[in-house]
Amino acid sequence: PSLPQYLLGERLRYTLVEDESYCIGHLSIKTRQIRIINTLTSQEHTIEVCSDETLEEILNRFYKYNKHAGSYTWKYNGKNLDMTKTLEQNGVKDEDEEFYELNFDEEDWLPAIHIYFNDDLTEA
């Protein structure tokens, strides 16, 4: 090689980082857990989401639990959620650090998003 051995590894590393075809995902600043409660069936799922994910992106991942998830209205504290916004933008605060400081078990205090069936006759 024309480059010293220690520089060759660095050059390869930067080439892979710059090539989008090797990208398998995006790095999130922080993740958090939420509970999604189906008010029709009373089923509850706890999922880990990225803090910068929109509710549309969360919905797309939630289809593995409920193939009709798009036929539901998503609410938090009785308010409809804007699916184009993140949880934080919809007023669903991330209180993980406060719970840690207070020595609370965050599993007991996860934000609950309720989904309400719209009965719009969509097919899975």
Tell me briefly what this model is.
This protein is an alpha+beta fold.
Could you walk me through the main structural features you see in this protein, from its secondary elements to its overall organization?
The protein is α+β, with helices and mostly antiparallel strands and 124 residues long. 23% of the residues lie in helices and 23% in strands. The protein contains 3 helices and 5 strands. A 5-stranded mixed β-sheet has the order 2-1-5-3-4, with no helix packed on it. A hairpin with a 2-residue loop joins strand 3 (72-76) and strand 4 (79-80). The termini are far apart. Residues 3-8 have low confidence and may be disordered.
Question: How far apart, in Å, are the first and last alpha carbons?
Answer: 55 Å
Tally the beta strands: 5
Strand order of the largest sheet: 2-1-5-3-4
Instruction: Note the main sheet.
Output: 5 strands, mixed
What general form does the structure show?
A: globular
Q: How much helix is in the residues?
A: 10-25%
Q: Give the mean pLDDT.
A: 84
pLDDT < 50 runs, ≥5 residues: 3-8
Number of helices: 3
Indicate the structural class: alpha+beta
Strand content: 15-25%
